[in-house]
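Can anyone check this?
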Amino acid sequence: MKSGRGRKPDNSGFVLLELLIALAIVLLVVGGAFEFYRSYLKSERIARNTLEAVTLANNLTARIGHDIVLSDEIKKGQKGLYFWEYELEALPAAADAKLIPYKVKVTVFWGDNAKRHFSLDTVKLREQ
């Protein structure tokens, strides 16, 4: 019988430590990929909500002067998860002016405690 020194080491399999190290590396890669995916989903949600807010502000602005009569007023409302507000203010014009300019500001709020917002400012004209 040969002693332990004379035997060749058996390299036919993996040691438990090697398997644990490989598992740890795989878990790190999967964890990083999951964090990247979670970040992507958050960014996509923010972009989608912002696009909806911009669209709502644009639609309200387009209605002002057509469906919504130009006059000094502030009005607020809600559409789904979005709160909106518009302010209409007559600007100074010459006494004989045929058109009266109005400052129009449309703001849409959303998110936790409505901390996100988008504002659209423009000037519209109304016949006197």
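Reply from J.R.: I decoded it. The beta strands are 73-79, 82-90, 99-110, 116-127.
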